[in-house]
Amino acid sequence: MSKVVPRINDADREKIALGIVRKQPLKKIAALLGRHLTSITNEIRKQINIQ
Question: 20, 32, 33, 48: least buried by Cβ within 10 Å?
Fold first, then answer.
């Protein structure tokens, strides 16, 4: 059975943005948030397309 993981919220988005500004590897950002690397990259791509 799959584990349900909540969607990325605004606080997580702030942490992702801060990690990018600090030039942290995406793997480290994903580990800090307890998310899969793909989830982080998808969120970044989504935010880039919005702006």
Answer: 48
Which phi and psi (to 5°) does residue 5 adopt?
Answer: -110, 130
Read off the tokens for 46.
């989504």
Provide the total of helices (H) and of strands (E) in the chain, helices listed first.
3, 0
What pLDDT is attached to residue 50?
78
User: What angle, rounded to 10 degrees, do the helices at 37-50 and 26-33 form?
Assistant: 110
Q: What is the pTM of this model?
A: 0.85
* Rounded Cα–Cα distance for residues 1 and 49 (Å): 33
Mean pLDDT per 10-residue section of the chain, whose length is 51 residues? 83 96 97 96 91 66
